[in-house]
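haha ok so turns out i had the wrong file open the whole time. this is the CORRECT one, sorry everyone. sequence first:
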Amino acid sequence: MLAIVSISIYRKATDSIADTTTNSVVTVKSGDTLENLSDKYNVFVSILKNTNGKYNNQLLAGDHLLLLNRNSKDSYPKNKKTSIDNKQKKAQNQKLDSQADVEKRWNQANADAKAWISFHESTDSYTAQNGQYYGRYQLDKNYLNGNYSPENQEQVANQYVSDRYGSWINAKAHWISNNWY
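then structure:
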């Protein structure tokens, strides 16, 4: 999560040009990308990504992006901008790639833990039953509210694990220790 200590102005959605002398916050609209926001507000894409912790164009309508005045493309001399920008982009992309790799490994570890639990609970069967427990993740039937569809089982299992353990990795560790999760 991005912590913002001080911002000079809060940008209205109707404003189209960022003030390069102050820090600004813009609200992402449906269809916005980092590239088109970069062009629209005259800010480097790499700095938008780094400042806001956005990787691989992960923008959602309603997100707020911080535009720092020092990030303006015009703040660099035109003839030196390319070499400075290329060095910055390379360093930032390496950092972003490293962060993306960590996130990718974390997501894969969670997917692996989820698959492990599914196999150990029901051998991956959405119709497995054991008393009051049902489905691929052997959830209490009360949690499923009468909807035993695979989609609902996935959604309820993800919510249950998130609320109780924080991650599938933690749920698996609990399962290993206690033979249940």
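The first strand starts at residue 24 and ends at 27.
again sry for the mixup
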